[in-house]
């Protein structure tokens, strides 16, 4: 069963609402990448890896406002490129 952008976006909204730390959100994105590697489109895999960069270095962190906008776009089914 495919893991969708919409599912991820809705889960991301919860993490934003709970004000989870950007580093933790990054780690979670990487976990979702590895957990669903066979169930996701290539572009979405790239997105998950890029968002996972937030766990590696503060320069890659996104604000809650940016993350919320990203989540909205994912829920709408859009492709999101971070870099």
What is the fold's blueprint, element by element?
Layout: H1 5-17, H2 22-35, H3 42-52, H4 64-75
Describe the structure.
- The protein is mostly helical and 83 residues long.
- The protein is built from four helices and no strands.
- The chain is globular and about 30 Å long.
Structural class: mainly alpha
Could you give the distance between the termini? 28 Å
Which spans of ≥5 residues are poorly predicted at pLDDT below 50? none
Report the sheet with the most strands, covering strand number, pairing sense and barrel closure: none
Count of DSSP-assigned helices: 4
Average pLDDT, all residues: 94
The portion of residues assigned to helices is 55-70%
Shape label: globular
> How many DSSP-defined strands?
0
Global Rg: 11 Å
Which range does the strand content fall in? Answer: under 5%
Order of helices and strands: HHHH
Summarize the structure.
This protein has helices at residues 5-17, 22-35, 42-52, 64-75.
Summary tags:
mainly alpha, single chain, 0% strand, 83 residues
